[in-house]
Amino acid sequence: xxxxxxxxxxxxxxxxxxxxxxxxxxxxxxxxxxxxxxxxxxxxxxxxxxxxxxxxxxxxxxxxxxxxxxxxxxxxxxxxxxxxxxxxxxxxxxxxxxxxxxxxxxxxxxxxxxxxxxxxxxxxxxxxxxxxxxxxxxxxxxxxxxxxxxxxxxxxxxxxxxxxxxxxxxxxxxxxxxxxxxxxxxxxxxxxxxxxxxxxxxxxxxxxxxxxxxxxxxxxxxxxxxxxxxxxxxxxxxxxxxxxxxxxxxxxxxxxxxxxxxxxxxxxxxxxxxxxxxxxxxxxxxxxxxxxxxxxxxxxxxxxxxxxxxxxxxxxxxxxxxxxxxxxxxxxxxxxxxxxxxxxxxxxxxxxxxxxxxxxxxxxxxxxxxxxxxxxxxxxxxxxxxxxxxxxxxxxxxxxxxxxxxxxxxxxxxxxxxxxxxxxxxxxxxxxxxxxxxxxxxxxxxxxxxxxxxxxxxxxxxxxxxxxxxxxxxxxxxxxxxxxxxxxxxxxxxxxxxxxxxxxxxxxxxxxxxxxxxxxxxxxxxxxxxxxxxxxxxxxxxxxxxxxxxxxxxxxxxxxxxxxxxxxxxxxxxxxxxxxxxxxxxxxxxxxxxxxxxxxxxxxxxxxxxxxxxxxxxxxxxxxxxxxxxxxxxxxxxxxxxxxxxxxxxxxxxxxxxxxxxxxxxxxxxxxxxxxxxxxxxxxxxxxxxxxxxxxxxxxxxxxxxxxxxxxxxxxxxxxxxxxxxxxxxxxxxxxxxxxxxxxxxxxxxxxxxxxxxxxxxxxxxxxxxxxxxxxxxxxxxxxxxxxxxxxxxxxxxxxxxxxxxxxxxxxxxxxxxxxxxxxxxxxxxxxxxxxxxxxxxxxxxxxxxxxxxxxxxxxx
Length: 861
Known about the structure:
- The chain is of the alpha/beta class.
- It contains 22 helices and 36 strands.
- The strands form 9 sheets. Strands 15-14-13-12-11-10-23-24-25 form a 9-stranded mixed sheet. A 7-stranded mixed sheet has the order 16-17-18-19-20-21-22, with no helix packed on it.
- A hairpin with a 5-residue loop joins strand 18 and strand 19 (about 310).
- Residues about 105-115 and about 535-715 have low confidence and may be disordered.
């Protein structure tokens, strides 16, 4: 009989894909189905499905849930997961009429004595212990192996270091973008992906576009019609948005997609959700000044007073344009403009540069100044002025032609050699287009000479911050390009190149490692079952093993104290038995302002009770509740603390669920004052000093209490720019009219500031960088809007976030009051009311307050 006795991760965990793990929990060839799977990858063999007892479903949807559909169509598989996730998958599978052996939440698992224990945590983590040794930690593997969310965070951190990236303000208009890979994105306030692009996040970021601006996606494919790249792209967008507590809208022409997404990502009580929208033929989607309609396999977009943008999404919609407006070819290579009279003009577009729709064409002199003279500064950062004499002379000649003092000057134009990554191309292109539009008569010979010259130049590098303005002039449509960032110079361009290369390396998995892991797994199968098919084979299964006689441990069943055991006592049973599961339930999220006050002043919050599900020897689950006291399980939860081993140091942040996991530490009693331990202050007041958990202000403060006594009552005075000192001040600071700044608001903004500034993620999804709870006077922090804030004495990242939210709320609430006052006018027309509602929705989309957003959405959407 062949046996396998090692309990180490190196021997029992097989990493077959970025988000796919096979875990072996048996000991010899007689074990029944001794493998479990977490996540998936496209090339899993049938053999593994036959010897896998459970697929563990995670709250972060490790792998791709749509890929699981393919496997479920061929095999009856068994799934285990959190209560909510299992319920979502059950409805998901039922909607697809898919079979499954079992879909069990952790409470339904009946156990016997086994060598392994599976833990589900309310922060989404999963631990699997084998022989009382931690074998698998999901969160650590997510970080180490760069799962989708962590990969996006790493790419975003690099993106924020790119000095040539586009800003939100520069792209806050209507237009479109065709990526280097030929994928189409619509620009309107936020971005809509009209072509599902695999690895969209890194693709956009490497071209200087913030991929987190993509908040919607369009697809005309059904679930079965999607290929693997399309599935990955759709899931990556959804994961990124939902795990960051952001809305994502999925526009689709297929009803099955809307149904499936509603099952997997139900709205529930949360204002953040996946919002599928079924676009049937002729049905209009009206969103903040944009109207979209599907007709004849094309998507037609109307931006207010601008011309239509027509985008085909299948071959039957790629015929001759029949409507006036801008037409994009199906291969995204050709842009054609069609007038009401049927006149068509084809334009060449440069991939990798956003194109913005403009309605007003500047005059000739203004065109030269904006699109030619403005380039001088950038040209001279590469070479001195003398190197650009030919271009500057060409600009003077262009001015003379526009003024009518010269008719042609082809003989005076010398050849232009490329020195920069594309500035010469842009300059010549703009000269040609300006002459075509405004020179009368047109200097045909000169335009022909310049056109031949530009053909010998390479297209501009998409790493340059270039914007294209799309005009409809009297003499036809044309594009003029301009530089969007004043930081363009050789040094910053080289830095952008380095960052782009790092992003490409991040998004390219090490295939050799996965091949090596498959070889290890194949060796294990041969060791257990003898020589057999390769792991990559989709044929036959290992020879049937004899059933092992069930034996029970000689130890008596344990009482309540047994709940602290890391795993059940080792017994002779194999993985044929169900894994023992323990689950601390989700802690209640207190919305009391005091909790938020503690986060701002103390930067820590207390623990809460936990539930453990464990086997008592009679195959029935028991639930034991522990309200206070320490757990000796070796894996307990501590709200607001980081993962540590016996450490009392607190991170000062919580997981997205409101708590984080602490391995090897005792569970907090529910109070934020932890006896015998200190909390990190997060303050820049002193280096290495910590703030006492019972203190509300750092030492040395001489600030006044911030209260005014009048007529026997005490009124709290709120000063937005001053950090609250007393409890009353902090409570008042977080209240603005009928809106309360919540813990979620502060956490999300603090997290954005930390990640933008190169610090560690407060959710511990990005472990690179310094601890954001320790900032010092003089540090520079990048705010969510891209501005830079210099830390001053007394600052903490939590107060900086709270102050930013309060500032924005004061402005937004004043604007909301003005708009609602106008909206109350009964004489308004429907179109006027719609404009006001659109403005209110714009505030809802940008506000940092979940309460204000929910209030506006519920009232006006």
